[in-house]
Amino acid sequence: MKYIIIFINLVLIFSGCDSVFNTESKPDHTERNTEFEIKIVDQTGSAQILYGSDAVPGASVLIKSNTLGTEYNLISDSNGVVKLTEAISDLYLVSVNKQLTAEEMLQITGKELAFRKLVNSSSGTIQLRADITNGYEIKLDKIIAESPLVISEIYACGPPGAGLYFHDKYVELFNQSDSTIFLDGIMVAVVYSSSYLGLNYVDDPQFIHSKIIWIFPGEGSDYPIQPGQFIVCAEDAIDHTINADSSVDLSHVSFEFYKDDAPDLDIPGVPNMIKIYQVASHNDWLIGGEKGAIVIAKMNPDSLTWYDDQMLIPYEYVLDGVEYNDDPTELDEKKLNPSIDAGLTGGIQFYTGKTMERIPIMVGNKKILKDDNNSSLDFKVYNKPSPEYHNEF
Predict the structure, then answer these.
(1) Is the entire prediction scored with pTM above 0.90?
(2) Same domain assignment for residues 76 and 158
(3) How do strand 224-225 and strand 230-234 relate by DSSP bridges?
(4) Are 241 and 279 in the same domain?
(5) Could you tell me the pLDDT band of residue 262, with boundaries at 50, 70 and 90?
(6) Could you tell me if residue 25 is inside a domain?
(7) Residues 84 and 72 sit within 8 Å (Cβ to Cβ)
């Protein structure tokens, strides 16, 4: 049976929140455990068709305390309501998903559409406070495609105790589906923004802006990725422990980024990613060590358009995206549109050897990786990289 996931991330900020954290003026609001009610509401008309109401019943809701890290896993009732009991006033991250059968999607759209999500186009946190126990709403307002191919790991910070060595960076992909996917022509793009120049395109309603775009080689069916398979694209596909004892062996990985117009390494036997565009000043494929964002997309590269010195990727062709930051609570500094990734993973400093991986979950008897379009909740930091496997698989 096919399933479709309904997912939502939302900010609800209530006025007067400064006073919530003032324990001298309102100790009851911060120190006592409280029951909060949050309602899941659909604005697309889908719930009206299925249930005769805008309320979304049977939704799985994950709520995580920003201060304590405590997680609550809840299911919305027949009125679309979840009750968070014995919780403190705090800033909370929220993720909601609702699985629908193909038959239900047929009712909604007239088509049996797989891999679609109903999401909220906003991002952020919910401020729950003890003097306001109900009236919170999460509104679903947009349908987007859900990709069976996801970014499963980003290793970017560099190894410890090796000076400024950083050539062991990589990005890893995972096939979530039950079918073979061909990587041929899929793009790996680094999202562009510049705090120094004051350029941030997070609010662009249509396009990813990038100065680093590469694609997988192949003519359409040359490079398969099997169900449940991980593949790594490495900056340099070598055993980096030769240069840095605490680094990682990438000599066995599937692909590497070889920049043929620079003094770069080209490892025999490892297929090269194809450079579409990268600023000439970089001698190798490069991602930020502490902060950055990466997307994968599927489109004809000849259809890419320009904006100044950046190339534009329409959102409709983006398969997945992940953003990370050295402070993952700084959601106001996001560079990736919330419709692609509503959160931030990370919290990793340079040269610590740590990595960011999606969290494994069980769906039936199958283990997959969590993908609710919110890296704050989908990813976990591990102490060591795991190229072409998972730390918990």
Answers:
(1) no
(2) no
(3) unpaired
(4) yes
(5) confident
(6) yes
(7) yes
